[in-house]
Design goal:
5 helices, Rossmann fold, disordered N terminus, alpha/beta, disordered C terminus
């Protein structure tokens, strides 16, 4: 029987419409349900209202830091894998994101295949929780 992504919801928190829309298109084409929000406060609200199978959070948002979003999601849903995305990555950023509950980070720009591999692997339990 084939593994499907039906009913697996992914939260994307990114204030760049072009990035969020592109990620939504790619993920929906793979069968995932996508909830896209454009600020950190809405991301936190969504994560407190419903269960997600995976979260993707941008570091620099218009209202609060992506670190705050990661910390809150991890506090309320510690089993949900979270990936930080940022054009301003550094080893310190990755360390902080992991400390707050992320499984790793991807630097912008990244190939959609990189994110899909992480999501597919974690959603289907094919790898452990570290990058």
């Amino acid at each position: 029987m084939a593994i499907t992504n039906e009913k697996v919801s992914i939260l994307i928190v990114d204030d760049e419409p072009s990035v969020g829309d592109a990620l939504r298109l790619v993920l929906e084409s793979r069968g995932y349900e996508v909830v896209l929000v454009t600020n950190g406060s809405d991301g936190i609200d969504q994560a407190r209202q419903r269960r997600f199978g995976f979260s993707v959070v941008d570091l620099f948002l218009t209202d609060i830091s992506g670190f705050e979003v990661i910390e809150d999601i991890h506090k309320h849903q510690p089993e949900v894998p979270i990936v930080l995305i940022s054009a301003h990555g550094s080893p310190q950023v990755l360390d902080e994101a992991i400390k707050l509950g992320a499984i790793g980070a991807l630097g912008k720009p990244f190939q959609p295949a990189e994110l899909l591999k992480l999501i597919d692997s974690h959603v289907h339990g094919l790898i452990d929780d570290t990058l």
